Each structure stands twice: as C-alpha cells, then as structure tokens.
Amino acid sequence: MADSTLDETRLPLGLRILDRWGGMWNAVFALFGGIWLLLAEVSMWISRSTVHKDTRLGGAAVVQQLVRVGVKSIGIVLLVSSCIGLILAIAMQPPLAELGQTNKIANIVAVGIFRELGPLIAAIVLTGFAGASIAAEIGTMVVGEEIEALEAHALNPVRFLVVPRVIATIVSLFLLTVLGDVMAVFASGLFTVNVFGVPQEVYIANTIEQLNLSDFTTGLIKAATFGTLLSAIACYNGLKVTGGAAGVGKATTDTVVQTVVLIIVSDMLFAAVFMQLGWT
C-alpha cells in the first residue's frame, strides 16, 4: 500500500520554504504567548501576596535564588565589565589622540557603559550563568515528575518555583548592572590615568559632567526588563520540557539563544523609544 503521508522532499522549493517559514513564526508566537501567560500568572501571585496575608511566596526561596542567581554571578559580571571598560578605553584612544581629545575617553565610556553596555553585558552573562541553569533545573523536575507531585498536593508550581526565580533574577540583574557599571568605569579610568596620562581629576570631572539622571534610569529600566525576559524564558522552557534528558538539553539551548536574541531586540527598541522621548 502506498504511503499516504506527504513527503516534504517532493514539495516544490517555494512550498518547502513557506512551510518552514510558517513553522518558525508559529514557534515565535507560541514563545511570546507562553511568556505572556506565565508572566501574567506570576504577576497575579505577586499581587495576591501583597493583598492577602495568607498567600505567601516563600521569602526563604527568594533569598536562596538571590544567592544562587545574583551573589554567585558577581565575580564573573565584574570581570567581564572590567574587560569591556578596558576595551573601550583602548579602542577609543587612537582616534581621540589624533584630535588631541584623549581626556574624552571618560565621556564615551561613561555614557556607553551606563546607558547601553552595562545592562546588556550583565544580562548576557547572567543568561549563560543562571538562565540555562534555571531551565535545566525546572526541566529536570518536569522529567522527574516533581511538578506533577506538587500539583497532586494542590501546590501551584508557578507560585512555588517560578515566582521566586523571577523576583530573584530581576533584583539580581538590577543590582549587578549597577556594580558592573561602576567597575567598568573604574577599570577604564585606572587604565586611562596610568597608561594614557590623563589626569585623574580630569577623568573624574568629565565622567560626572557627562552622566545625567537619564543615563542611570534608562540603564536600570533595561536591566529590569532584561531580567524579566531572562527569568520568564528560562522558566517557560523548563516547564515545557518533554523527551527526558534530551529535552532538558534542548531547553537549556533554547533558553540561551532565545534570551540573547530577545534582549538585543528589546535593547534596540528601547534605544528607538528613548530617542523619541529625548532621553539621549
């Protein structure tokens, strides 16, 4: 009997391209829809905990996730931020020296780090350090039927597993961005003063003169948004794991790829919105 299934290789090239293109967009819409529903439920539990005293989110769980996601990431975030500050200083010195404006390294590094690179670098580092770990941890619980065990005991997995991780990731990325900003400017300043001969007083004065309140607020708004995206994508991919160990590996890979892409796209959108608002 002839096989009734449709062989994709027999389709015309145009139809195959449309089929794969449609499948990609279906996956994109499924991702956005899943993240939206997950964040809506997280917001519901957080708001309910502030109104009803009998609804607790588990302070110990939040603190535990803060230590695992935030405290343990401090070293790597500070190291990467320092390197970024040094790279900016080294890269900008030759063209500025030709114009006799080497002291303007401070201005460029300050605005670049606080407005753009600080939250972006912290988010990308935290994606690899904690995002994949969160997805793998929750995915392993799904494979081990621990999620079903929670539901069998009338315990909501979003409330007890997702909410603490979302709160911890947002707070951690917010604070790590501040630490990374300071470390990048400090490393750049130390290098510029000692290697390029810019007076310390000039570097500090130029940094303070360049920075304003919008530079701080835009960077911190991005950090909070990136933390929300990171935690939501990691938890979503972890909860939808299927296929055992292979599914857990796929969830961690998808988490890193999707998070990095969405963070960069959202950063681009923020830049356009802030420019329209005059926050540049």
How many domains, in number, for the residues?
A: 1
- In terms of quaternary structure, the protein is single chain
* Helicity level: over 70%
| Spans of at least 5 consecutive residues with low confidence | 1-6
SSE arrangement, N to C? HHHHHHHHH
Gross geometry: globular
- For the report, how would you describe the main beta sheet? none
Structural class: mainly alpha
| Overall pLDDT confidence | 88
How many DSSP-defined strands?
A: 0
Number of helices: 9
| Gap between N and C termini | 68 Å
Radius of gyration from the alpha-carbon trace, in angstroms: 23 Å
**DSSP strand (E) fraction?**
under 5%
Feature tags:
280 residues; globular
List the helices and strands and how they pair.
Layout: H1 13-51, H2 59-70, H3 74-98, H4 105-143, H5 146-152, H6 157-195, H7 200-210, H8 213-239, H9 245-277
Helix pairs in contact: 1-6, 1-8, 2-6, 3-4, 3-6, 4-6, 4-7, 4-8, 4-9, 6-8, 8-9
Short description:
The chain is mainly α and 280 residues long. Helices cover 83% and strands 0% of the residues.
Describe the structure in your own words.
The protein has 280 residues and is mainly α. The chain has one domain (58-277). 83% of the residues lie in helices and 0% in strands. The longest helix has 39 residues, at 13-51. It is globular and about 70 Å long. Mean pLDDT is 88; it is low at 1-6.
